[in-house]
Amino acid sequence: MTLMEYTTLFGLLDWVALALMLVAWFGIGWWIEHPAARWPSVTMLIAERRREWMRVFVTRDPRIFDSQILASLRQGTSFFASTCLLAIGGVLALVGNTDPLRGVAAEVSSTQVPVLVWQIKLGLVALFLTNAFLKFVWANRVFGYCAVLMASVPNDPTDPAAYPRAAQAGELNVRAAMNFNRGLRAIYFALGALAWLLGAVALIVATLIVIWTVWSREFASAPRTILLQDER
Questions:
Q1: What does the alpha-carbon distance between residue 228 and residue 110 come to, in Å, rounded to a whole number?
Q2: Is residue 35 included in any domain, yes or no?
Q3: 7 domain-assigned
Q4: pLDDT digits over 125-158, tens only?
Q5: Distance (Å, rounded) from C-alpha 119 to C-alpha 111?
Q6: Within-domain flag for 60
Q7: Which end of the chain is more exposed for a tag (fewer CB within 10 A), N or C?
Q8: Smallest Cα–Cα separation from 177: which of 10, 67, 4, 46?
């Protein structure tokens, strides 16, 4: 099947819905990571607390508490990475076995839809899940880099290398958390992409719901209000 034949499998509204989801995915991520100074996101507020954590870490004795927190963060990334891997396997198994897809097609739509269409739609879900998996794996590794730098911070706070290395550890901590958050957003959009099985309109509605969910948790949530109390 040629590229032109592939494109004819979907209507104009399908392409609009797909474009909307992809633009929303990139757009909301950029907005969260580059918010206006007067309206910071939870991600950016927590990033400053992560940097402050590393500054406090220099004078904390003993430092077991810090290592436990970092271990907990790494466990979270490992859990989500494993979950994504299982989900990817399930989606690929469904794509490879077309019989269940024919059953879904018969129940969802009264028109005859090629199985390839359902496979492509599930492929979008798999792409989001794969992106999430890669982000979680990278976040886990960067948290590991952070742990190494934390271990290299001298015990003596007056050592010239203490605060510079702590600052480096703080930046790695922020980068790891940012990738973790990107992975979470990809999971949100993977769930929204499932709505495409019901049609283009369902995908558009699901995309709007995902945008609202992600935006509200970053810019209009109770945790954000609590974090801002310290800023005033």
A1: 52
A2: no
A3: no
A4: 999 999 999 999 999 999 999 999 999 999 999 9
A5: 17
A6: yes
A7: C
A8: 46
